[in-house]
Amino acid sequence: MSRIAWIGLGNIGKVLCENLARYGPKSTRVSAWNRTRSAGEELAAQVENIEAVSSLADAVNNSDIICVCLSDDAAVKEVFSEIVSKASAAVSGKLFVDLSTIHPDTASAEAERLHKLGAEYVGSPIFGGVPLAKNRQVTLVLAGPSAAISKFRPFTIGVICGQLISLPDKPCAHAFMLKLLGNFIRFSAIATLAEADAFSEVVGLPPEALEEFVGVVLQGAAVGQLQGLRSGEYHKTDKV
């Protein structure tokens, strides 16, 4: 039986945890923990194979793989500090997979702290928001020991993600560096599309002309980004 803990049930964490329980290997059991306990209890009531646990120590003790999906560096540091202080004896031999969006230095520090206790750490930031997560189409980046990546791989494509960028035996910080670079490229592209869309409106270019150009020449994510700009989607999206 695969025993997995999921720590952090925010907007995207909740969706990924649910997908893990629904679409993971049949024997997968998920222990869900959230600072607000009711979030875990509500999810456990809705999804088979999820059990809400009351403490981080219980989550670690009951699992072989611990997935962490938290909002920022401060939350990650707080959770790992609590794990080390209250469940250090249970950490040895466990695999921690960090799906949070954090600074590369934070990831390196937590990986080193866990390594000293005999645990492994894989950096695994996410590209994509809640809509893609619901359809299991987010992209994960995995960086860390190749054996650890292989251990987590059965829970990735078709389970919680659609695409995987694997960096075996590379420092975990590389995954988060790629996340920073990827976000820079994506946001720069969105800003450029916004300027182009505004310019096309000023000069009287039909909206469908620019959209067709983007679809034919740029393709891919640029099409959805332009549509998102025009629909106001980026103004309505909740923080994930």
Topology:
Blueprint: E1 3-7, H1 11-23, E2 29-33, H2 37-46, E3 50-52, H3 56-61, E4 65-68, H4 73-91, E5 95-98, H5 104-116, E6 120-123, E7 126-127, H6 130-134, E8 139-144, H7 146-152, E9 163-168, H8 172-202, H9 207-218, H10 221-231, H11 233-236
Helix pairs in contact: 4-5, 5-8, 8-10, 9-10
Pfam families: NAD_binding_2 (PF03446)
Domain 6-phosphogluconate dehydrogenase NADP-binding: 3-155
Protein name: 6-phosphogluconate dehydrogenase NADP-binding domain-containing protein
Strand content: 15-25%
Multimeric status of the protein: single chain
Return residue spans where pLDDT drops below 50 for at least 5 consecutive residues.
Answer: none
Query: CATH homologous superfamily name of the largest domain?
Result: NAD(P)-binding Rossmann-like Domain
CATH class of the largest domain: Alpha Beta
What is the CA–CA distance across the termini?
A: 31 Å
Write up what this structure looks like.
It is a single chain. Helices cover 55% and strands 16% of the residues. It has a six-stranded parallel sheet with strand order 3-2-1-4-5-6, sandwiched between helices. Helix 4 links the parallel strand 4 (65-68) and strand 5. The protein starts with a strand and ends with a helix. The longest helix is centred in the C-terminal third of the chain and has 31 residues, at 172-202. Helix 4 (73-91) runs parallel beside helix 5 (104-116), helix 5 packs antiparallel against helix 8 (172-202) and helix 9 (207-218) packs antiparallel against helix 10. The chain has 240 residues and is α/β, with parallel strands linked by helices. The chain folds into two domains: 2-172, Rossmann fold; 179-235. The model has no long low-confidence stretch (mean pLDDT 93). It has helices spanning 11-23, 37-46, 56-61, 73-91, 104-116, 130-134, 146-152, 172-202, 207-218, 221-231, 233-236, and strands spanning 3-7, 29-33, 50-52, 65-68, 95-98, 120-123, 126-127, 139-144, 163-168.
